[in-house]
Sequence to fold (346 residues):
Amino acid sequence: MTYNTSLDFDDIFRHEQLAESVYLNIARHSKHYSKTRRKDLPSAADIQALSETLKLLFNLSQYYPQHLSDLARCAPNILKILCRIHLATPVLQPPVTYLVNALLNLSVVYDDKPQKDSDHNPYFPKPDQFCNIDRFISILDNAVRTYTEEQLETLATPLVTLLRKVFEFAPQHVRPHMQTALLPSNLERSQPLGQSNTLASRLLRLSSSAVAPSLRESVASLLFELSDKDATSFVRNVGYGFAAGFLMTHDLPVPASATEGWSTDEGSGDLGEKLTSVGGKEINPVTGQIKEMEPKASGEEMTEEEREREAERLFVLFERLRSTGVVDVRNPVEEAVQEGRFEEVD
Fold:
């Protein structure tokens, strides 16, 4: 009805109380999820009707943003349904996907103004101001364990976008709760970040996905925003290995200490310490792993003569590769000699 139509929806909003009708429809459906009516479960027809109403709401909020203030009053009932609805397996299917989509354009608008006051914001209700956030995160955790990256590209991107919007307008005392739930903890630093099975590690891997570009961008943006949009905090939280691509594609300055290993210069100041120390323990700024827990190098350190022989072997290999004509490469050993960086051993 909202695609390729000649209907004048502005007129329907003004004279037919369209926003009020959508609100009343969703409010009626929300009664099925009341704590006092647990046995009054919605029928398949009810769920289908709810899904159609939610799709209409999303399209209206997407294509008629001038009426967002009228539609925003639907948010509390949508959140109520999303928090109390039984989650099927797999989790991201109707009506859950439609509930999430319907919130996308309403998440920062309510009663005609952004809601940072948690006393009146339906996203952070009393007495449990974390209930909606925890539900969003639980759905995301379930999804990333169930679907392939290709499936998540379509299904999970709206949910990650919703989390980003909620975090942006979350009260100050709520933001640390989201950061703790979505960023890697210090317990994960016994190995390189991104290698465990936690939600944070799975998000890190998705932030560098080669097959889900939209999700990759959305997840990386979420992690950057959870790091207070600070490049140094971002590298410290996720490791330079995961942060580098996002920082470079967004023309954000890369902290110098991130590429210099563990800085011991007196002039490195607080920046180097922020990047290379967590909980009083030295970390690898590239992988995020605690230094003392990194695997020890196997074998003894090479002697100068062994290094020279290895350099000669590499020289021969590069010369053979260049002689094939398949690729045009410059021999790094030859380059080092020409630049005076190669010292011959007697």
Q: What stands out?
A: Residues 304-324 form the longest helix (21 residues). Residues 109-115, 261-272 have pLDDT under 50 and may be disordered.
